[in-house]
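ok new one. same drill as before - structure tokens go in, u give me an amino acid for every spot. 269 of them this time. try not to just spam alanines like last time pls lmao
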């Protein structure tokens, strides 16, 4: 992001496309896809545009969600004050899955540093931009190489295992039924597949209930005197089905400052 313009390098069936997106003064969003090799057809450009439209949520209509919960004691203020809130989605489901694995059980800044190292080392580069390496590329990486980037050895193995499954076509992460195979992979749990659902496929009901932000937020909102456990987060957001993921997103955006108030919350026993 530079000077209010988002620039992203994408590869559509190996064809490099650079997409720019920016907001105009009248509130409309403009997108432009530029082919970076000869012979790249209009269809590839349209796919690249569609992927960025998905990532920034420009086409999302939350009217039904707003109508359902505008009067809700928790979500009402969030909807009125922050109607523009959107989950921070990824251009491709594979990207959402890979980054969810790198974020398991660590703080976001540390995970972001690991992700930057992965992109810098294996991501294709063009015009100063780098794309996220695809599943086939990550499938060929040695676990020790990933571990050297501060990724836990167990998570390095998990990332490589799912990369091999995705690259070989055994696991189509664009489909919700891929979650069963993913959950059978050592090191892949509910939190990871919920992140894939919310940030990679746009499932409004996918709630990453084990996220540390939710554990702290619900511990504070529910006056537990400690961090919540994932089951308590699930119970708290159950009334918002089929929009539990969206409800959680709006709640975090509106009430995240509550986490910092008062004494630090101890972990659940």
């Amino acid at each position: 992001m530079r000077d209010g313009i988002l620039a992203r390098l994408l590869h559509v069936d190996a064809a490099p496309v650079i997409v720019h997106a920016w907001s105009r003064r009248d509130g409309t969003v403009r997108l432009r896809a530029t082919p970076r090799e000869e012979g790249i057809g209009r269809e590839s450009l349209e796919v690249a545009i569609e992927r960025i439209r998905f990532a920034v949520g420009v086409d999302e209509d939350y009217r039904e969600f707003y109508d359902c919960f505008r009067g809700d004691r928790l979500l009402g203020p969030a909807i009125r004050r922050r109607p523009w809130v959107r989950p921070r989605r990824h251009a491709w489901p594979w990207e959402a899955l890979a980054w969810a694995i790198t974020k398991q059980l660590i703080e976001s800044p540390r995970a972001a540093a690991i992700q930057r190292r992965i992109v810098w080392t294996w991501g294709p580069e063009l015009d100063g931009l780098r794309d996220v390496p695809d599943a086939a590329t990550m499938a060929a990486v040695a676990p020790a190489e990933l571990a050297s980037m501060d990724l836990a050895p167990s998570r390095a193995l998990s990332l490589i295992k799912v990369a091999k499954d995705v690259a070989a076509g055994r696991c189509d992460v664009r489909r919700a039924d891929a979650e069963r195979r993913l959950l059978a992979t050592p090191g892949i749990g509910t939190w990871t597949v919920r992140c894939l659902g919310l940030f990679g496929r746009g499932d409004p009901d996918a709630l990453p209930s084990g996220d540390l932000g939710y554990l702290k937020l619900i511990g504070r909102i529910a006056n537990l005197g400690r961090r919540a456990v994932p089951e308590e987060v699930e119970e708290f957001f159950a009334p918002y089905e089929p929009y539990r993921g969206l409800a959680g997103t709006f709640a975090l955006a509106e009430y995240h400052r509550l986490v910092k108030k008062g004494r630090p919350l101890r972990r659940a026993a």
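Residues 37 and 52 are 19 Å apart (CA to CA). and btw The longest strand covers residues 15-23.
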